[in-house]
Design a protein that fits this description.
Number of helices: 2
Largest sheet: 4 strands, antiparallel
Shape: flat
Radius of gyration: 38 Å
Helix content: 10-25%
């Protein structure tokens, strides 16, 4: 045998060994799980639950929930919501126990919190450039862009049925959102 033939036989032997190990690993992964081997230590019986949950069991542990003794609360408590904190104790500095303000004595007479409506979204356009039209006396044509397209618009034009271009200059374009009745100035992006 020549030197090249010996190298080829060695490479063939290595490849066959790798193939055999891959086949053995695949067969082991596909066979069902068997009983645990003797090397695996069984868990202590004192830590095992009386009713161990099944792998797909998603039931609630009602034994861990607080128990209420009053019959009036049965069926009215929502276990998926946190309880409200108890009201703070009355201040200790009051002598008569009554407040000068009649609304302070009733704990439910707090003014409702003011909820502000969410702000309208920003106009998703960018002012990327401008052109001048000589035929209209040097009026500007703004080049606006959202992330996917470019738009060439003139003053007074409505874009995408929602945005009206009010004024165009070489530094700023004023745009009005017709849906939210809101104006925004878009500076030129450099």
């Amino acid at each position: 045998m020549t030197k090249q033939d010996r190298q080829k036989v060695i490479i063939l032997g290595v490849l066959l060994a790798v193939l055999a190990s891959v086949v053995v690993m695949v067969l082991r992964m596909n066979e069902p799980a068997t009983a645990p081997s003797a090397a695996v230590k069984a868990p202590e019986t004192s830590k095992i639950s009386v009713n161990p949950p099944a792998p797909g069991d998603a039931s609630l542990r009602k034994d861990l929930l607080d128990k209420s003794d009053t019959r009036q609360e049965i069926g009215k408590r929502n276990i998926f919501e946190y309880r409200e904190a108890p009201p703070p104790p009355p201040p200790r500095g009051s002598r008569s126990g009554k407040s000068s303000n009649p609304d302070d004595s009733v704990p439910g007479n707090l003014p409702p919190p003011t909820v502000q409506p969410p702000l309208p979204p920003q106009i998703p356009l960018k002012y990327v450039g401008y052109l001048t039209q000589e035929s209209t006396g040097g009026a500007f044509v703004a080049v606006l862009s959202d992330d996917s397209r470019h738009y060439n618009v003139t003053s007074g034009e409505v874009l995408m049925g929602r945005y009206r271009v009010l004024t165009i200059s070489d530094k700023i374009v004023d745009v009005e959102d017709l849906q939210y009745k809101r104006r925004q100035s878009l500076p030129i992006v450099k």
